[in-house]
């Protein structure tokens, strides 16, 4: 059941995922359900792809759990993935060789997201360390009102 989004009704969900190879799949399915229920199904394919890439990186390159936050702000959806590794990936890496088996994830984020970025978390008052990588997608014409 899909609902028409109400622009005055912003929302936010957070999914905690363990360091587990199933984490990207669980994150994709959860994200699709959230977007479908809130009337943003047109964004679901791209959001799933980009979220899967970020959660896969969290699983591969950190040794702890990860967190996926999905937030609506007007006609935009922001997805942020936190993991326990404070080492930032190269955010401005150039093209990846055709034969490379890794390194395409952030390139996909760069090409498909309307905006994106990231930052390391160190010495936070709450003791939180790691990094946060985020992306935003805008609602296609007619999706958000």
Helix and strand arrangement:
Layout: E1 12-17, H1 23-37, H2 44-61, E2 66-73, E3 76-83, H3 105-112, E4 115-121, E5 130-138
Antiparallel strand pairs: 1-2, 2-3, 3-5, 4-5
List key phrases describing it.
alpha+beta, 28% helix, 5-stranded antiparallel sheet, 145 residues
Polypeptide structure, described:
- A hairpin with a 2-residue loop joins strand 2 and strand 3 (76-83).
- It is built from three helices and five strands, in the order βααββαββ.
- It is 28% helix and 26% strand.
- By secondary structure, the chain is an alpha+beta fold.
- It is globular.
- Strands 1-2-3-5-4 form a five-stranded antiparallel sheet, covered by helices on one side.
Beta-strand percentage range:
25-35%
Morphology: globular
Could you give the order of strands across the largest sheet?
1-2-3-5-4
Number of helical stretches of at least 4 residues? 3
Give the overall average pLDDT. 85
Q: Give the SSE string.
A: EHHEEHEE
User: Kindly, what is the distance between the CA atoms of the first and last residues, rounded to a whole number of angstroms?
Assistant: 18 Å
Rg from Cα: 15 Å
